[in-house]
């Protein structure tokens, strides 16, 4: 090959690469969200997005045969997720309440290494999705289908049913479109969807407490009180913010607590182990959230401790999920949060 031919080949490849990136990048975050819903893990979703874009680039010269570029990316991503789930020892992730009854015993601090837990999804990724509004045929609104409880519930579905439900009821694709993407007949897709809906109805009944970003002064005041309760180690104040039937979970620890008094007893015990906390506001799964930093002695740097997701209902906390160490601190990077804070300087997200 001559120098001129090599130069032309390089120019052609560069043009193709720019064209691919122009087509693919607008869909990166919604593909990440789709992989997250399939896998229940923000870390695994990131790996699958990278894999999806790599496979798409390698087959870019063939995509036009498939029609919609977006649908082609979803096909690659869904198949990559199904393959990843097929080689995983356990195809589902959990939240502690799915593993056993609530307890009043204090935890021993030992995680359950053989169990994978659902991870939170940063709202900053959702903000970068241009328009994830589903079609009118979708059974779940975008805000509902990203909540932690929903993502945890669909993990109980077999992977193929999970994919069908997400494509049909979350994204609003037709049975024909879904069959073309996953393979199989329209009859088989509809059958899988009905089985998935039946299972989900028992895991995620209608009428669950609504949750979301703060709306109005009342909820904003509740979140400020929550932050102050942690930073002042005020068990009475924290308890006052809970609904009577509130639940508290702390993956990867299997223990969880139901009811205001059981949660109060836990924090009365647990907070004796710390010299203080500093909380930073964030958001995850369309819900208000906090990143908590702790220290063992006064004057020491604040170290990443846990990520808190709050489910709000009727102006109180109906559910509190605290992603505890070691899993919680490992999630801070996905939320663009530092692993530690200086002893006396508050965190400034803009710095």
TrEMBL record:
Keyword annotations for this protein, in alphabetical order, are:
DNA-binding, Sigma factor, Transcription, Transcription regulation
Entry keyword annotation includes Transcription: yes
Q: What residues does the SnoaL-like domain cover?
A: 223-318
Ranges of residues in domain RNA polymerase sigma-70 region = 25-92
- Similarity section: Belongs to the sigma-70 factor family. ECF subfamily.
**What PANTHER family does this protein map onto?**
ECF RNA POLYMERASE SIGMA FACTOR SIGG, RNA POLYMERASE ECF-TYPE SIGMA FACTO
Record's subunit section: Interacts transiently with the RNA polymerase catalytic core formed by RpoA, RpoB, RpoC and RpoZ (2 alpha, 1 beta, 1 beta' and 1 omega subunit) to form the RNA polymerase holoenzyme that can initiate transcription.
Official protein name in the record: RNA polymerase sigma factor
Species of provenance: Beijerinckia indica subsp. indica (strain ATCC 9039 / DSM 1715 / NCIMB 8712)
